[in-house]
Structures are given as C-alpha cells and as structure tokens.
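WARN no homologs supplied; continuing
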Amino acid sequence: MHMQIVTFTLKNLTDAEFRTLCGQLAPAFTAIPGFISKVWLADPATNTYGGVYTWKSRPAMEAYMQSELFGNVVNHPKFADVTSKDFSILAEPTQVTRGLIEASA
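OK structure emitted
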C-alpha cells in the first residue's frame, strides 16, 4: 500500500464553497483503479486544504497523478501552492496501531 498527502491553499474560494466542491468531487474518486480511500483535510485558520489518499500500490498512485482528475486539482485556478508527497507504509507497526493495512490483503 501507499499513502499520498496532497495540500494546497485556496485562492478566491471560501471554505464553504470548497466544502461544496468537495461534495461534488468525492464520487469521482471511487472509480479510480487502485484507490482505497481519501480523507479530506481542511484548516481554515491557515488556509490549508487537501487530502490523505490510500492506494493499493505506488503504480496506482502514479497512474492517478497522470490522470485528468489529478491534473484538474494541480491546475485548478482557485488552488495555489499544490504539493503532493507519497509514502510507503510500514506494515507491521501499522497493523499494531490498527491502521488500514488490512485493506492490502
């Protein structure tokens, strides 16, 4: 499994407008091959937003990063300072702490 953390700031978009947009976009993620889950992030105090994605594999994450959907995030006119960082998952301690590691089975 692989984790990806994407963050950005909002530009000329309110927190409420962003939350509405999230509700519209959420269903599109469920059809991505290799996608397990996404946790949507919001910190209005620092104007930082984004998501924590769980992928079945690094290739699945990389395919998403080449997709139109990811391109729409990176190039969205109301998102600025987009960053994406990926991490491999340490299976044994993740199992101990009841992480999502069982989803890889």
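The longest strand covers residues 79-88.
OK
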